[in-house]
Amino acid sequence: MKKNIQIAIDGPAGAGKSTIAKIVAEALGFTYIDTGAMYRAVTYKAMQQDIYLDDETKLANMLAVSTIDLKPSAQGQLVFLDGENVSDAIRSNEVTASVSQVAAHAKVREQLVAQQQKLAANGGVVMDGRDIATHVLTDAELKVFMSATVEERARRRFLDNQKRGIVSSIDKLQEEIALRDKMDSEREASPLIQAEDAIFLDTTTLSIDEAAQAILRLAQEKML
Ligand code: CDP
Ligand code: CDP
Questions:
Q1: What's the rounded Cα separation, in Å, for the pair 215 and 66?
Q2: Atom of ligand 1 nearest to the CA of 132
Q3: Domain extents for the chain?
Q4: How far is the CA of 15 from the centre of ligand 2 (A)?
Q5: Which of 54, 62, 84, 212 is most buried per CB count within 10 Å?
């Protein structure tokens, strides 16, 4: 029996990756690693420091002297940047709108990928992102590419906002998501793409529990 496997979950925004990855990690007693939070933290710091987001060298130099820590807590994963809790700040609309621009730079990705690989080195992890199966954990025992229609993903984000008391428009959210998907899929450095050995999971009509159970079944097969 192989217990400490690596599970890689990739896919576009709003597919349900982080929600389902957390449930799967908890059920298996694994660590959940949200790599999107790391790209968001870099983007947040660059914006705070007024760094031009197309200046790859400056961004890479800034990241080289930064510390990003992911810490599990009762409220979910917390994100610390240079010791400061930025878990909420990195979810702002401003960061969301700019993160794909920062994530397109190879020199930024190289540093974050090295950190992610270290975090997953002992297995027992569920890691979600865009390039986990194709670049970060290429030997992961289970690779899932999760998606849903862009209309459903925008509807989910709209409901998320409503719960947080944020007024938004579904049409605008759909446009923003489609733009981010396009930037993430068309960039040169490790674009969002389904790995050849990944299993495709369409969550459009699945409940959270159904999607989590589907992945847990696959994980249990791999752990036999
Ligand atoms: O939660 P949401 O789907 O909105 O996004 P996220 O997972 O927090 O990721 C934010 C952005 O970071 C993505 O749109 C990508 O541009 C970038 N990202 C990436 O390039 N590679 C990863 N492994 C994870 C995120
Ligand atoms: O991490 P990612 O951007 O892929 O998506 P998420 O933040 O986990 O999910 C976006 C929203 O969709 C959350 O509010 C989830 O609760 C919801 N969701 C859903 O309604 N049905 C699913 N099968 C999966 C997620």
A1: 34
A2: 23
A3: 6-223
A4: 6
A5: 212
